[in-house]
Amino acid sequence: MTASETALVLLALCLPFLGAVFSPILYRIFKSNAPWLLALIPLFSLIQFIRLVPRVADGAVLTGGYDWVPSLGLRFSFLLDGLSLTFAILITGIGTMIILYAGGYMKGHAQQARFVSFMFLFMGSMLGVVISDGLLMLFVFWELTSITSFLLIGFDNEKEASRRAAIQALVVTGGGGLLLLAGVLLIQNITGASSLSALFETGNVLRDSPLYLAAFILVLGGAFTKSAQFPFHFWLPNAMEAPTPVSAYLHSATMVKAGVYLLMRLNPVMGDTALWTIVLPVFGAATLIVGTLLAIRQTDLKLMLAYTTVSSLGLMVMMTGMDIPHAAEGAVLYLIAHSLFKGCLFMVAGLIDHETGTRDLTKLGGLAEAMPITFAAGLAGAISMGGLPPFVGFLAKEGIYEALAAGSLCATIFLLIAILGNALMFAVGFGVGLKPFIGKKTDTPKHAHEGPALMWLGPIVLGATAFLAAVFAHFFNSHFSGPMASAVAGEEIEIHLSLIPHIGVPLALSVLTVIIALVVYWRLSEARAAMAGMFARLGPGPDAWFDSFMRGIVRLSFKVTQTVQPGRLEFYITATFCIIAAVLLVSLVSFGELPQWPGLPDGFLLGHWVIIALAVVGLMAVINAHNRLTAIVTLGIQGFSVAVLFLLLGAPDLSFTQFMVETLSVVILTLVMTRLNLAPSDHRALGQKVFDGTVAALCGLGFALLLMRVTQVPFNDSLTAFFNAYSKVIAHGHNVVNVIIVDFRGTDTLGEIAVVMITGLAILALIRVRSGRTKAVAKEEKAQ
C-alpha cells in the first residue's frame, strides 16, 4: 500500500478513540444534535474501508504500518484481506447506526456522553482486533475489548446485577485473554513469526510441531471464552444488563464474534487436523443446542435474542471446524447474515422497551398499529433470522445445508443438529420480531408509540441491507462473502448462492426447518414451559458454578492473606530471608554452579588477617551483647572492618562510601533506640534464636558462594571500556566512578537518595510521635 493509503487506514483505526475523547465536548456544545455529528466518525472509517473492497475482491492482501518497538521486531501493522476487511466494514457500518441509536435511546441520561465515549472505545478496540497483523498487537486490542465491555456492561453501576455481569464478563473473557497471550507467545516461539502475514507463510510448521496441542488448547481458551462457547456461554446473556445499544453492538458486530474471527483467521495454519475438526464441531454443536433450548424458555426479548446469539456463535464455530467442502462459505455467510439481523432485532427490542416500558413477551401484543416502522424492521430481521427469502439469512442457511448435506455420516449428524437449531432460532426470531406486533393489543406501562428517527433508522438500514445483499447476491458474494471465505479456507473460493431456488436437498431441508419452526412458534408457550421445567430439573448450571467459583476464590484469598500477611513484621522479614537463602543456595546447587575455593590474592598481608579477626570479634560481640544499644554500636565494627579491607585492597572510593554508610547507620539506629521505648534486650527463646541464626547464616553463605562464583567467571570488560571511553566525552568527568553514579546511573542514584530521605522522614515522624506521647504521659502523671 502507498504511504497515503496506510495513513488513511491507521486514521480509520484511530478515529473511534478520538471519538471517545471528543464525545463529551460535542454533547456539551451540540446537545441533542451531537449523535448526528459523532456518527460521522465511524462513517468516515467505513468509507475508508469500502474504498479498499475492489482491490481485496480481486485477491489482494493489503498490509502496512510502522515500527513499534524496532529492537524487538514489533510493528504496529495491519492486515486487510477478505476476512478482516468484511469485519471492519461490519464494525464501522453497524457502529454508525449504533451511535445514532444510542443518541435516541440514552437521550436525557445524565451520563450519555460518557456512555458514547465507552462505545467508541469499544468500537476502536474491536476494529484493532480484526485488522491487526502483529500477534501481540492483536492481543493488546483483544484485552481492550474485555476492558471496554466491562465498562459498558457495568454502566448502570448502581445496580448489583450490572456490577455482577460486568465482573463476570471480565473474569471469563480476561482469563481467556491470558490463555490467548500464552498461545500467541507459543505460536511465535514455534514458527518464529511475530505477525499473521508471516505466520501464513510457515505452511505446516505449526501443525507438525509437538507443541501444537498446547497451542491449540490455549487458542481455544481465548476464542471459546470470548465467543461464549459451552461451557463458557453463561456470561453473554448476563451481559444483557447493559443498555440495549451495548447489547445490539456486542452481539451483532463486535466482541462476541472476536473468538469466531480468531478461529477463522487461524484456520489456514491450525485447521485440517483431527483436533480441529473434532473439537470445534462438537463444542459448536453443543453450544448451538444449549443456546436455542435456553432461548425458548425466556420471555424477556433481550434474553431471547442473547441466547440465540450463543447458539449462532456455536453454529459458526461448528462450521469453521468442519473438514468438508463449502463449510467456509456457510460459516461466513451466516456470520454476515447474523450481524445484520441480530443488530436489527436487538434495536427493535430496545425500541419496544423504550416506547412501551416492558420487554416481557407475555405482556406485549398488537403494537403494529402504534409502531409501524418498528414492526417493519422487526419483521425484516425475523425473516432473515428464520432463513427465509428474500433476505441474506436464506443464503446463509442454504450454504450451511449445502455443505453438511454433501458430507459424511458424521456431517449428517451435525446437519440434523443444524436443522433443529435453525428451527428453534426461527421460532425465537419471529417471537421477537412478529409476536409483539400482532394479536390483541395489550396495556403496557407506557403508552405505545413510534420511536424517534435516531432509534428506528438503524434497524431499518440493517434490514434493508440484509434484503439488498440477497437481491444482489452476485455482487455481495464476489465482493464480500467470497473473499471472506477464501481467507478462512486459505484458498480461492467462489460462492454462487442466490435467491433463485435450486431444487435439491438444501431446499428440502429448508422446508423441513420451516415446518418444525412453525410448530414450535405455534406452541411457543408450551415449549417455553417444557424447557423451563427441564432446566429446573437439571439443577444449577454454569452461571451458579461461576458464583461458587468466585466465592471459593474469595475464601481462598482470605486464607492465603491471613497466612502470608499476618500483620507481624518479624514474620515478613523471616519469610523474606528464607526465600533469599533458598533462591541463592538451591540455584547454585541445582545447576552445579558452586564455586571453587579461592586462593588468597596477591599481597594479602598479616594486616589483612588482623582486620578480618577484628570483624569476627565484633560479630561475637554483637551476638553476646546484653542489650540492643550495645549490639547496634558493636555492629558497626563489621562495617568499618570491611571498609578498611576495601581501602587496603585498592578501592578507596568504595571504602569511603562504606565508612559513610556504616557511620550513618550506627548513628541513626542509636538515635532511634535512645528515643523509642523498646525492650532493652532480646527476649527470644533459644529455639527462635537458633532458627533465626540458621537463616542468617544460610543467607550469608549464599551471598558468599554467589560472589565467589561471580568472581570466577571470565571478566567481561565491555562496560569498563564503555565507561572509560565515554565518561569524559559525554559527562566531562575524569572520576569514572563518580560519573557512573551521577550521570550514567543518575536516575538510580536519585531514587536511592529519595528512599533514604523518605526513610529519614519516617523515622523523624516516628520519634516525634513517640516523644509527644511520652511528654503527654509525663504531663498527665505530674497533674495527678
Automatic annotation (TrEMBL):
Q: Where is the NADH:quinone oxidoreductase/Mrp antiporter transmembrane domain?
A: 132-416
Q: What is this protein called?
A: Putative monovalent cation/H+ antiporter subunit A
Supply the Gene3D superfamilies for this chain: NADH-ubiquinone/plastoquinone oxidoreductase chain 6, subunit NuoJ (1.20.120.1200)
The record's listing under Pfam families reads: MbhD (PF13244), MbhE (PF20501), Proton_antipo_M (PF00361), Proton_antipo_N (PF00662)
Matching InterPro entries? CPA3_Na-H_Antiporter_A, MrpA_C/MbhD, MrpA_C/MbhE, ND/Mrp_TM, Nuo/plastoQ_OxRdtase_6_NuoJ, Proton_antipo_N
Residue intervals of the NADH-Ubiquinone oxidoreductase (complex I) chain 5 N-terminal domain: 71-115
Q: Is the keyword DNA-binding assigned to this protein? A: no
| Recorded topology in the membrane | Multi-pass membrane protein
Q: Which GO terms describe its cellular component?
A: plasma membrane
Keyword tRNA processing on entry: no
Record-level Gene Ontology MF annotations: antiporter activity
Where in the numbering of this chain does the MrpA C-terminal/MbhD domain appear? 613-676
Q: From which organism does this entry originate?
A: Martelella lutilitoris
Q: Name one GO biological process term.
A: monoatomic ion transport
